[in-house]
User: Fold Class I glutamine amidotransferase-like protein from Crepidotus variabilis.
Amino acid sequence: MRRSYLAAFTIAFHATLAKAGTAKVLIFTATAGLKHDNMIPAAIDVLKDKGPSIDVEFDSTDDASTFTDDNLKKYDALLFLATTGDVLPNDESFQRYLNAGGNFIGVHSACDAMRNSKTYANEIGSLSYNAPEVQNYVVDVLEPKHPSGAQLSSPWAVIGEAYNFASDPRSLGARVVLAARESTFFDTNKSTTQGSPHPIAWYQEKGAGVQTGGIAGRSYYTALGHLPETWQKDVLFQRHILGAITWTVQSGTTKAFNTSALVGNYSPSGSAGPYAFTSSHSDTTRC
Ligand SMILES: *[C@@H]1O[C@H](CO)[C@@H](O)[C@H](O)[C@H]1NC(C)=O
Ligand SMILES: *[C@@H]1O[C@H](CO)[C@@H](O)[C@H](O)[C@H]1NC(C)=O
Assistant:
């Protein structure tokens, strides 16, 4: 039982999809709350620098007015990097992008953004409850075969806020890749609703932000990456984040790997075409 389960996962992670183009990812860094001033530019530099090694091209913006259907449909994934607060005036274009097969990656304080959007909360998997102070802590790698968990050490000593989450991402079908060892850090106000072990990074094969009838892309969230030095110097963290991005863009629901997909970076002969789903926003997503 256990063995065939693992075998199935190994196949799923390593299945090679036919590539139609270089994946394009939009890094979105708007902040309406706390801003990670030094980390954000360092992270963008590292991602743009390492992009060719995973065949991903990154654009970056902190301008919410770029969230139009025409602009979003060029991207295989949206990466919310240390966003905080209500960074989009509304989540309608985001919802349509997800319904059309778009993929999502949330990093660090992206779990403390868009608290007015059930779509966003479902797509990221869980929002933060609070943040213990920045400190060293230890994570266990629960999914060493997942590209974001491969070639890490386990246990792994990291630094940052071991966020507490308001809900258990596993309740939406997420699988936890990294879990914080609670005995390794100070936390006077733990979440009793985030499940155990303490989730720190997870993936959803079908991001739960999609509406019924939509094409579910993938979703990944990691709480790591608080310090600029982590991005610049921590080789294990770089493997983790690049593995997460690689896995996310390989959903098969976007043009980098699927010429008939509705969104994503398309080959010169193709055209992005209209979205299949233009239903107005409603809260019919799973919760
Ligand atoms: C624990 O954290 C929650 C969420 O931030 C907050 O509402 C609550 O007041 C905190 N409780 C204590 C005792 O600090
Ligand atoms: C490719 O995209 C089409 C159109 O969105 C979709 O119906 C199909 O399921 C996708 N293929 C895969 C492997 O996801």
